[in-house]
């Protein structure tokens, strides 16, 4: 393990924080990941929007502590930036889930039928978020 005490290291599967991380280092890392999340998540959402024909009024990131995505008719879809740390199929599932709310604002059987028509990842993604979602809050 090359983890040093003075550096923040990000690999494809984990974020290792310095043993004595400072608030400034955490802020810096959070800002960095926010920028990456914008580049990674929003084009992904827009690709799914184009493919499904479900078009949100706008797209943006959110810093919410309680949801992965939100969809409202007038403000569009916002995705939690922390999904930058989730596997791609999980990010894809959240995109599809929120896009389907444009047609069904509830979690009715019609909603889930549409979700499952558009992605095969529902069960695996929900399991992943249940098992690992809290880990994405390591930076607060
Ligand atoms: Zn929902």
The strand line-up of the biggest sheet is: 3-5-4
Number of domains: 1
**Which series of helices and strands comes N to C?**
EEHEEEHHH
CATH fold description: Zincin-like
| Helix content bin | 40-55%
Question: What characterizes the major β-sheet?
Answer: 3 strands, mixed
- Number of extended strands: 5
For the termini, the CA-CA separation is: 25 Å
Which stretches are low in confidence, meaning pLDDT under 50 for 5 or more residues running?
1-5
CATH architecture term: 2-Layer Sandwich
Query: Gyration radius, to the nearest Å?
Result: 16 Å
Sum up the overall morphology in one term: globular
Question: Helix/strand-derived class?
Answer: alpha+beta
CATH classification, class level: Alpha Beta
Bound molecules: zinc ion
Number of helices: 4
Arithmetic mean of pLDDT: 89
- Relative strand content: 5-15%
Name of the CATH homologous superfamily: Metalloproteases ("zincins"), catalytic domain
């Amino acid at each position: 393990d090359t983890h040093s005490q003075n550096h923040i290291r990000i690999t494809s599967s984990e974020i290792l924080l310095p043993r004595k991380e400072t608030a400034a280092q955490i802020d810096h890392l959070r800002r960095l990941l926010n920028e990456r999340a914008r580049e990674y998540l929003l084009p992904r959402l827009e690709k799914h929007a184009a493919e499904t024909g479900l078009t949100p009024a706008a797209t943006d990131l959110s810093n919410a502590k309680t949801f992965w995505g939100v969809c409202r008719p007038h403000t569009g879809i916002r995705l939690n930036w922390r999904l930058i740390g989730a596997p791609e199929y999980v990010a894809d599932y959240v995109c599809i889930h929120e896009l389907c709310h444009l047609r069904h604002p509830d979690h009715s059987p019609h909603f889930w039928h549409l979700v499952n028509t558009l992605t095969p990842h529902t069960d695996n993604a929900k399991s992943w978020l249940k098992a690992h979602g809290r880990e994405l809050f390591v930076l607060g």
